[in-house]
Amino acid sequence: MSEQLLQQILTELKGIKTDQQSMRIDIQELKIDVQELKTSQQSMRVDIQELKTGQQKLEAEIIEIKKDTALIPFIQQAITEASKEIAVASESVRHIEGTLTDHETIIDMLSRRSLEQEAAVKRIK
């Protein structure tokens, strides 16, 4: 074979070898990128799981709030009834206070009359 043909083959082989080296570097970079994507994907899965857990907690809290909110009308009714009973009791207390005032006045009058009668009895003796 001629020297020129061998030189051409050698040049061609060097070009193929350079391309092959370049491809190996690209493949290595692709492997690194794939590994980074896998790591990122795993991280996203963890984040999604945390979001799901948080969502479940929020849903449970919402259910509790709905239960508590459902009791509000009953609580309002109980407060209204208690207020009415307090108003009735207050009226009763006012009536009793009035009666006590009347009784105190009567007792005071009877006490004075009794003292007057004692004094009259002592004068008669």
Structural description of this entry:
- This protein is an all-alpha fold.
- The chain contains two helices and no strands.
- The model has no long low-confidence stretch (mean pLDDT 93).
- Keywords: Kinase, Transferase.
What structural keywords apply?
125 residues; mainly alpha
Structural class category: mainly alpha
Q: Bin the strand percentage.
A: under 5%
Summarize the helix and strand pattern as letters.
Answer: HH
**What is the overall shape?**
rod-shaped
Instruction: Give the averaged pLDDT, no decimals.
Output: 93
Per-chain topology:
Layout: H1 3-70, H2 72-124
Question: What's a concise summary of this model?
Answer:
The chain is mainly alpha-helical and 125 residues long. The chain contains two helices and no strands. The chain is rod-shaped, with a radius of gyration of 52 Å.
